[in-house]
């Protein structure tokens, strides 16, 4: 997670660098604008920039993670990176598009994602969610909704929750981080599908039981 986002000056320095802001106009026609000092807004600006670059070139993708939850209406404060789901077979084409847009793309030791930075905010391009590959079917289920002023594909609320709950294990089991999302979007989530996808695993089953006891979902 990039710590530079906590420094407003770092955000402004990033904007004044070599990044070409994506617009519907020809490349180079738009001027880079100053970003607000709030980190949530900087993350949203980075999300819109990357999403617009991918849309302009016709790449298949879907917004994931905490920014996707925000777009669905869960949460108002963003502190972490922006996550985009892309298929592994599209990685090279996506990388080329982002580099042409002025972003440096790097491959970390993990083989399931690429990383870049936009407006001093970390952006991950993910090929696998909770050990499952990003597929055309997953992207087909994405819904196009606004992320502030930019419409883009966002993981469905059901797939987003499945990705979060399926990640629970004996080594990572932060129910408190996922509970507000489940509560806020319970009307959008297909709970039968969630149970079918991950309800047999011990930690996801425990989380679903907690939701039952809290009267978030029916037993």
UniProtKB/TrEMBL annotation:
Domain of life where this protein originates: Bacteria
InterPro entries: NT_sf (IPR043519), NTP_transf_5 (IPR039498)
This protein's name: Nucleotidyltransferase
Gene source species: Streptomyces actuosus
Source organism phylogeny: Bacteria, Bacillati, Actinomycetota, Actinomycetes, Kitasatosporales
């Amino acid at each position: 997670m990039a710590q530079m986002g906590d420094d407003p000056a770092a955000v402004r320095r990033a904007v004044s660098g070599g990044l070409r802001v994506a617009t519907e106009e020809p490349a180079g026609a738009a001027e880079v604008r100053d970003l607000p000092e709030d980190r949530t807004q900087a993350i949203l600006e980075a999300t819109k920039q990357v999403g617009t670059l991918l849309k302009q070139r016709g790449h298949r993708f879907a917004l994931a993670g905490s920014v996707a939850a925000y777009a669905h209406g869960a949460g108002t404060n963003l502190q972490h990176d922006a996550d985009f789901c892309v298929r592994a077979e599209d990685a090279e084409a996506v990388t080329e598009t982002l580099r042409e847009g002025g972003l440096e793309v790097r491959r970390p030791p993990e083989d399931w994602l690429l990383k870049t930075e936009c407006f001093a905010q970390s952006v991950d391009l993910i090929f696998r969610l909770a050990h499952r590959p990003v597929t055309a079917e997953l992207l087909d289920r994405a819904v196009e909704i606004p992320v502030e002023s930019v419409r883009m594909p966002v993981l469905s609320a059901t797939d987003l929750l499945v990705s979060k709950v399926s990640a629970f294990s004996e080594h990572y089991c932060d129910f408190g981080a996922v509970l507000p999302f489940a509560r806020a979007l319970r009307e959008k989530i297909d709970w039968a599908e969630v149970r079918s996808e991950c309800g047999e695993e011990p930690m996801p089953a425990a989380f679903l039981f907690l939701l039952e006891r809290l009267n978030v979902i029916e037993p």
